[in-house]
Amino acid sequence: MTEFKAWFQCINGCSGRHPLNEIIYRCPQCNELLEVQHDMDLLKQRSPEEWKELFSQRIGGHEWPYGSSVWGKKEWVCPSLDNKNIVSTFEGGTNLFWAERLGHQLGLDDLWVKQCGMAHTGSFKDLGMTVLVSMVKQMISEGKNIKAVACASTGDTSAALASYCAVAGIPAIVFLPRNKVSLTQLIQPITHGVLTLSLDTDFDGCMKLVKEVCANNDIYLANSMNSLRIEGQKTISFELVEQFNWEVPDVVIVPGGNLGNVSAIGRGFQMLQELGLIDKLPRLVCAQAEMADPLYRSYKSGFKDFKPIQAQKTLASAIQIGDPVSVKKAIKTLQVFDGVVEEATEDELANAVGRANHTGLLCCPHTGVALAVLEKLAKRGEIRKNDRVVVISTANGLKFTDFLYNYHTDKLKGINSEFAYSPIDLPADYEKIRETILNTIDN
């Protein structure tokens, strides 16, 4: 049986390989981020049809751990991991929603929404966290001194880390910016019993502090600068082409905050192409909130330079990040994929959610950013009527019921809620109920 291989290597191409069970986050030579590299020659020993058949046999099965949409691609993700150390909730395999009605409203014939929020903890973060926490479990079994795993978060990463560490029985610590995450997101790590630090700063401040803590205290860093996370998240691309019967969409739109997911999805498509399972790449679009748009500003200058900013308060709180860790990876990916970066105002993102939910979706505000950008690109003709477009929905709308409630009760400051609806208070009287129903339907 072939023993497939993967390792950490510098994104700048510096010499030196590091095993995936080494506690390392940056290149020792240039201090740049690392990425996971696979021995592609070994993977190419199987034909594209053999890989497709293997993956098809595993989908939806119960053989541990291959029923997971991440671990069903184990050879392409983290081949050296012992199955006994895998920490999984059988993540992935999320719905690809045909947004036919919404698409027609926007002048598009082939619009789809990848519902990554239909997950164990309600976001795409589960895909990366299963890989990272599994490797931590393996390292602990090998005798490495890891006291806990920690992350800075705007909500969803902390939920995933807390849950997967609770499954594994590994201590976790989450750093959250006070009053900048939804109540639902705050309660998730609390209910799993992990150490939750609510700090009087923003995400960038939390990130700075967690890196300092992890550098000096035998605590493992779980943010997306750790490319084990990216290996799990790249399986979104694998799922998409499988769900389209191995056809590639024309455009994929991804909300961008810390920018790990943009590079992850790009890596997934590139791996599929190199191994011969697809013959083209989609166009990637990174969607940012106007209040936290450092990548968009760089894009406007042709990526000639990048300057961190102080992110301002946005309804899309999970992407309220002004100094994204994975910016170099994201720029590199977008340049390969003929990428576009566009932004959405608060009003645009909120009403994009209102419109989409009126057609049967249930979107988080970050998905609203992507949908608002979709609408802009469609109006400008940069996305064509017949293009197959996929919007990556990153989190479950139920994690943001406070946002949705405030939208429909006109309590969002500065937002004109174009699709607001509210219950009608009536007495328990048949005639008044009948009159109200008929008047409403007729109008």
Explain the overall architecture.
The protein is α/β, with parallel strands linked by helices. Helix content is 39%, strand content 14%. It has a domain at 96-118 and 230-397: Rossmann fold, CATH 3.40.50. The protein has a six-stranded mixed sheet with strand order 3-4-12-9-10-11, with helices on both faces. The chain has a four-stranded parallel sheet with strand order 7-6-5-8, sandwiched between helices. Strands 1-2 form a two-stranded antiparallel ribbon. Strand 5, helix 6 and strand 6 form a beta-alpha-beta unit.
Percent of residues in β-strands: 5-15%
Number of helices: 17
Structural class: alpha/beta
Distance between termini? 68 Å
Please state the oligomeric state of the protein chains shown: single chain
What's the structural blueprint in terms of helices and strands?
Elements lengths: L5 E5 L23 E5 L1 H4 L4 H11 L15 H4 L18 E3 L1 H6 L4 E6 L9 H17 L6 E5 L3 H13 L3 E6 L5 H9 L3 E5 L3 H14 L2 E3 L6 H6 L1 H9 L7 E5 L4 H15 L8 E7 L4 H7 L26 H10 L3 E5 L1 H12 L7 H15 L8 E6 L7 H8 L21 H13 L1
Parallel strand pairs: 4-12, 5-6, 5-8, 6-7, 9-10, 9-12, 10-11
Antiparallel strand pairs: 1-2, 3-4
